[in-house]
């Protein structure tokens, strides 16, 4: 086996943040001279040296990466069977880290298939041991391999790598799209990030962006190369896919709440040095990594103590006597106290921190920390400003110009979120009776005023009930999503309000569908089930309100007079 490993070389493929366009990590991919790495591992398995060979490949990946001075985390691959094997097999991995001056925190271990051959208890125990030592964990091959879903919730990995076979089907297969929506929902609950592998086309990239997937790698973004491209950017590729919604118009919307991006959506790997680093240490880092905007000085636990801004530091050390004064002295003399922000903060929270900073530091990177105040990375203010601006533009474009209420996409996201969460909730469809007659008799300006008045009534009512979301989906049609304890008082208040057009009273019709866990599967199904209920409501006299449930033909009439003949 050692002789075969001598012929293995490595290529490095970047992982990109789809919000910032920058590289956040690099994966080391083994490239044997003959065949592929799976062939090599099969030979090792037959010879009884699988774990040794697997770990040896990971060690070689670490040493090859050290030759290129990576400033971002390195992803290396290990089989689930190896991690479930004897702990002593992992000892060379720690040796390779010591030899190259890296720490477990610099490494993401991608746990690969097959999972079924690894004893579950030993696999979980092995992963827990590695995480306790500081390694980050990714589960690879999710979606097409034999990854048990319960393993995701038990391990709660830092990353979940979406298999290429799932990614390729996203633009054209609604079922695969729904699968990733469900996976995204699970990952949000367990604190994992999805990484899409093998992105090859703009259609795939567009579908991923619509789903809210933040990290991706693939030949469309950057090919695997012998020399890692840590300074690469995919801003041009992202700008070409400027309308991710256009790629998947027939799909349901993203699962995530439309509450704006989080700071972690804009995370860059932090360039760190120990708090005892000298100014010369910092200068060497900045000289070798021209895209780095600053250095974070951390303690032994990885907690940020100081930040060194690139521009202010270079001004300090490049003067006539700067090098002589500072080179061998601690870099903290030219540093500032870090601006910290928690990983759960929103982008708007970050802008609030910046707004209260000293004027000369408004463009400094912010250091993102976890619950134990350890450095997770840095965020650049310019990225967040651009992201928030894009979000506001998208939100404004999605609002009805007449009522300023969100459209059907927003309601679709909320319905799908509640379905995935197993909630008990109600969806209501409200409209004006004989609205065309209102326009024809009172004029379209009066019709617009009526729609605005209904929109204001819905908005004011929703402000009273935090679990209610309303939308204007076109013409005189409005949608309402609410909890079961909120729909009755909210709807009653709206239906009790008098509405008129040029002095002529108008009536409303409301159809409501009560959705229990497991009774509906999608927003599209909800809309289909609401249609006959709406027809029933329209057939009643005066302002009407009917209520139904999936799987039942029974309709409760809560308001409305006797049936009229329907023409």
UniProtKB/TrEMBL annotation:
<dbReference type="InterPro" id="IPR029787">
    <property type="entry name" value="Nucleotide_cyclase"/>
</dbReference>
<protein>
    <submittedName>
        <fullName>EAL domain-containing protein (Putative c-di-GMP-specific phosphodiesterase class I)/GGDEF domain-containing protein</fullName>
    </submittedName>
</protein>
<feature type="domain" description="GGDEF">
    <location>
        <begin position="423"/>
        <end position="560"/>
    </location>
</feature>
<dbReference type="InterPro" id="IPR046342">
    <property type="entry name" value="CBS_dom_sf"/>
</dbReference>
<dbReference type="Pfam" id="PF00990">
    <property type="entry name" value="GGDEF"/>
</dbReference>
<dbReference type="GO" id="GO:0071111">
    <property type="term" value="F:cyclic-guanylate-specific phosphodiesterase activity"/>
</dbReference>
<dbReference type="InterPro" id="IPR000160">
    <property type="entry name" value="GGDEF_dom"/>
</dbReference>
<dbReference type="Pfam" id="PF00563">
    <property type="entry name" value="EAL"/>
</dbReference>
<dbReference type="InterPro" id="IPR001633">
    <property type="entry name" value="EAL_dom"/>
</dbReference>
<dbReference type="InterPro" id="IPR050706">
    <property type="entry name" value="Cyclic-di-GMP_PDE-like"/>
</dbReference>
<dbReference type="InterPro" id="IPR043128">
    <property type="entry name" value="Rev_trsase/Diguanyl_cyclase"/>
</dbReference>
<dbReference type="InterPro" id="IPR035919">
    <property type="entry name" value="EAL_sf"/>
</dbReference>
<feature type="domain" description="EAL">
    <location>
        <begin position="1"/>
        <end position="238"/>
    </location>
</feature>
């Amino acid at each position: 086996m050692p002789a075969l490993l001598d012929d293995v070389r490595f290529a490095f493929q970047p992982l990109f943040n789809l919000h910032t366009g920058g590289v956040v990590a690099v994966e080391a991919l083994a490239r044997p001279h003959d065949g592929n790495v799976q062939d090599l591992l099969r030979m090792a398995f037959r010879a009884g040296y699988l774990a040794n060979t697997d770990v040896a490949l990971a060690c070689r990946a670490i040493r090859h990466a050290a030759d290129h001075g990576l400033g971002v985390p390195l992803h290396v691959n290990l089989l689930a069977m190896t991690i479930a094997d004897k702990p002593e097999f992992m000892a060379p991995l720690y040796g390779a880290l010591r030899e190259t001056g890296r720490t477990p925190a610099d490494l993401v271990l991608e746990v690969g298939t097959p999972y079924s051959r690894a004893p579950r208890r030993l696999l979980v125990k092995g992963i827990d041991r590695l995480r306790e030592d500081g390694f980050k964990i990714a589960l690879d091959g999710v979606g097409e391999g034999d990854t048990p879903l319960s393993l995701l919730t038990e391990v709660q990995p830092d990353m979940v790598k979406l298999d290429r076979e799932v990614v390729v089907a996203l633009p054209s297969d609604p079922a695969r799209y729904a699968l990733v929506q469900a996976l995204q929902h699970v990952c949000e609950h367990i604190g994992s990030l999805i990484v899409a592998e093998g992105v090859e086309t703009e259609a795939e990239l567009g579908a991923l962006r619509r789903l809210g997937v933040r990290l991706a790698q693939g030949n469309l973004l950057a090919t695997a190369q012998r020399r890692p491209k840590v300074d690469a950017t995919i801003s041009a590729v992202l700008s070409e896919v400027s309308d991710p919604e256009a790629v998947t118009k027939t799909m349901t919307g993203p699962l995530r709440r439309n509450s704006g991006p989080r700071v972690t959506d804009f995370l860059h790997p932090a360039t760190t040095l120990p708090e005892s680093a000298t100014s010369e240490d910092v200068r060497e880092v900045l000289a070798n990594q021209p895209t780095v905007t600053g250095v974070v000085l951390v303690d032994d636990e990885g907690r940020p103590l100081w930040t060194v801004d690139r521009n202010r530091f270079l001004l300090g050390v490049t003067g006539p006597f700067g090098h002589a004064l500072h080179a061998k002295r601690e870099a903290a003399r030219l540093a500032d106290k870090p601006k910290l922000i928690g990983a759960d903060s929103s982008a708007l929270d970050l802008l609030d921190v910046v707004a209260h900073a000293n004027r000369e530091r408004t463009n400094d990177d912010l250091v993102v920390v976890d619950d134990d105040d350890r450095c997770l990375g840095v965020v650049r203010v310019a990225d967040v400003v651009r992201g928030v601006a894009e979000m506001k533009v998208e939100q404004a474009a999605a609002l009805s110009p007449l009522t300023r209420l969100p459209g059907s996409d927003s309601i679709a996201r909320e319905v799908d979120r509640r379905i995935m969460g197993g909630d008990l909730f109600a969806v209501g469809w409200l409209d004006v009776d004989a609205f065309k007659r209102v326009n024809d008799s009172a004029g379209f300006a009066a019709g617009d005023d009526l729609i605005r008045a209904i929109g204001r009534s819905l908005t004011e009512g929703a402000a009273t009930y935090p679990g209610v979301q309303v939308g204007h989906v076109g013409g005189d049609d409005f949608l309402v999503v609410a909890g079961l304890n909120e729909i009755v008082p909210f709807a009653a208040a709206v239906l009790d309000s008098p509405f008129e057009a040029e002095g002529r009273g108008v009536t409303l019709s409301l159809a409501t569908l009560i959705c229990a866990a497991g009774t509906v599967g999608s927003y599209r199904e909800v809309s289909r089930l609401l249609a006959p209920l709406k027809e029933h409501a329209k057939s009643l006299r005066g302002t009407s309100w009917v209520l139904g449930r999936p799987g039942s033909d029974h309709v409760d009439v809560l308001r409305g007079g006797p049936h009229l003949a329907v023409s």
